[in-house]
Amino acid sequence: MVFENSDKKLVDKHKSDATPDSSIKYEILKHSLNSELSCVSAFLIAKRCNVSPCKVGMIANLINCRLVKCRMGLFGYKPDKKIVIPVKTTNQNIKNTITNNLVKGKLACEIAWGIASFFKVNKMTVSGICEDMNIKINKCQLGAF
Q1: Average pLDDT, stretch 5-17?
Q2: Angle of helix 39-49 versus helix 53-62 axis, rounded to 10
Q3: pLDDT digits (tens, 9 = 90+) for 77-97
Q4: I need a surface site. Which of 34, 43, 60, 138 has the fewest CB within 10 A?
Q5: Dihedral angle of Cα 121, 71, 53, 8, to the nearest 10 degrees
Q6: Neighbour tally for 19: CB within 10 Å
């Protein structure tokens, strides 16, 4: 994962001809601290600028701004990178919904958010249940993983 390798620039993840949109770049710089942009702020910027969260993530990478504090608890926390912990649940409906939405044994971030919303639980609860079920979450909406 690029975010763990301080020797490699984040911009290296994208095509050499990729250039950041100036208005989105401005918003990122305005909402970042020490070249770090939180997941919450990235989504607010995406909504404000009417672009996809992935576009905000790409531009953050292009200007070497790290994405941090994933709302699923999967990356961007110090000192251990992730803070999600396994969550045991007796709610078989949540487990079944997670299982029914797996693609190649993994759950997409956006689907995990949808499950959290549907069952009215915290996003980190869903990622914790996935941890307990040994299910990896993939396809970060910001493009971080």
Answers
A1: 46
A2: 110
A3: 999 999 999 999 999 999 999
A4: 34
A5: -160
A6: 10
pTM above 0.90, yes or no: no
CA atoms within 13 A on the CB side of 81: 8
Burial of 90 (0-12, 13-18, 19+ CB in 10 A): exposed
Nearest 5 degrees, angle CA 81-CA 87-CA 114?
85
Q: What is the domain partition of the chain in residue ranges?
A: 2-68, 92-138
Neighbours of 50 (CB within 10 A): 7
User: Count of residues for the chain?
Assistant: 145
